[in-house]
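=== RUN LOG ===
request id: a7f3
mode: sequence -> structure
chains: 1
length: 679
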Amino acid sequence: MWCAVFLRKEHQPMDKKPYYISTAIAYTSAKPHIGNTYEIVLADAIARYKRMTGYDVYFQTGTDEHGQKIQDKAEAAGVTPQAYVDGVAGQIHEIWDLMNTTYDKFVRTTDPMHVEKVQKIFKKLYDQGDIYKGSYKGKYCTPCESFWTESQLVDGCCPDCGRPVVDAEEEAYFFKMSKYADRLMKHIEGHPEFIQPESRKNEMVNNFLKPGLQDLCVSRTSFDWGIPVTFDDKHVVYVWLDALTNYITFCGYDPDGNHDEHYKRFWPADVHLIGKDIIRFHTIYWPIFLMALGEELPKQVFGHPWLLVGDGKMSKSTGNVIYADDLVKWFGVDAVRYYVLHEIPFANDGVMTYEMLMERINADLANVLGNLVNRTIAMSHKYFDGVVMQPGASEPVDEELKAIALALPEKVEKRMAGLHVADAIDEIFTLLRRSNKYIDETMPWALAKDESQKERLGTVLYNLLESIRFAAIMIKPHLPETADRIFAQLNIEDKGVESLASFGALEPGHKVGQAEVLFARIDIPKKLAEITGIDPEAEKKAKKAAKEAEKAAKKAEKAKKKAEIPEGCISIDEFAKVEMTVCKVLACENVEKSEKLLKFQLDDGSGTPRQILSGIAKFYKAEDLVGKTLVACTNLPPRKMMGQESNGMILSAVREIEGGEELHLVMLDDAVPAGCKLC
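=== RESULT ===
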């Protein structure tokens, strides 16, 4: 088994302000996908930024390695639970490193030190009366390691993950949650920044705290892959009490009260960065555990949104999983970092598809950033042999560019302070886009043709190089490799945010490095075919052929049904052609020289009266029909009757009677408006 705790570096001098950031420890049930990986990249960007702005950062991450789900998976794989978690923890560790994350400590809950401290914490809480022995009967979700009552289920499934639950009944130890509920509510009310975003806080208060907390099961007897309870060997500590305490056990907390200097310096944590799906455990269970232990609560818990694939949450069961190492192989580390940091809003879920990722790389990284750096360095070599010129020939257009650059550090600080990382990146790209516009405005290629404009050309290129320096420093927490490559092209060292106090720190006479492509434009159809093994053009043709085949099949089916219609019947399509319209009788009169015909002027809803002649004079008097609501067939071709045009046929019913027949017009309630269609 490889080392359970990995400490990356010694901390900075004590005069720097401490900052403790943690991710949730990744559950070692399976290899993490890009949605899981987003969290470590987000935490890394924040940690890097805090270091850059003068903080002594402690950044902790790691793996959660106990529980029934892991024991079941290990048994299915035919290995011991320890061997199973060693393998998955190794994968997680490799991916965190692949993504260029600068954590200070990678922890594992199978570490003997953590095991011993958790046992002491459990005993301490038991001795002071916060934990008691009982039994549990209810519903259990193995993937979430959560117990639920029948009323808490959603459509009979786990309310957190939506998967089936099983009946569970066993002896267990319970923690008295309700004992601390009022105290936690007061803390949340008094510390509005404690749960972020605001929507997560409202959810916890309204859905869990206000209805009343149930006591929490904190031990299990139905499996043995967990930390043993020292005073009752049938029980193992339930996963959440084991997992959540990692934030203090590995930081230097001692259950006996002899905390080390590291803990005294860094606790309470400044922010626990977690997925929104485990916000309840971190904002209700965890602070209550800390209250019971007499420890300070973390300053903030930030429940970040999910990264979705297409229109759904990433899941192996749905087959839509994308892995970080595959994305890095196809697009590079910084392109992947950029997408997950920029495309997931502060409080809403983000979406990833291969097409969206490639479009963003082309639009932002290749066009805006890469093109700016490449052509600025190339022009410096073309016009001045790579030498940075002394700026002197200023013009009003320069001032806006300088102002945006000088305002950048403060704007980014404001965004990062609220963990609005995507917005911070947008501020940086505002400077990059303005720099590209500045090139279009100043047209260096035109200035180069006029010897008298040489000083102005040198000033323009200086302003561009200096703006690129500002952007490179500010983007380094997010795209560290790209920032270093920009510094190499500028041929300068990264002197940090302190060097951005004024516009003009780039020394004249300095020679820039060689231009290189930071991000190549991607041929999206070709790359997509490489990734998926599907030729998009062939797929397009196949879809078109399938659509045409479906259309032909429907046509053939329609023809078949038409051929099967019995003699004397019509098809539904033929019937649908008949247009029957509700009409109001505006006027009615007998037709001169005709004993049969009545001439109607009808309101059919079109705005123009419709004339229809009908041979019903022997059944109705013309004056009796004015104002009545009738039904007429209105899509018959016009016909001449007694020299006058008739545009339709009024519907009526005829029946045979002794000595002849009687006719009844189809009349409707006057409330039915003219123009309505019968169907």
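=== NOTES ===
The chain has a mean pLDDT of 90.
The radius of gyration is 38 Å.
=== END ===
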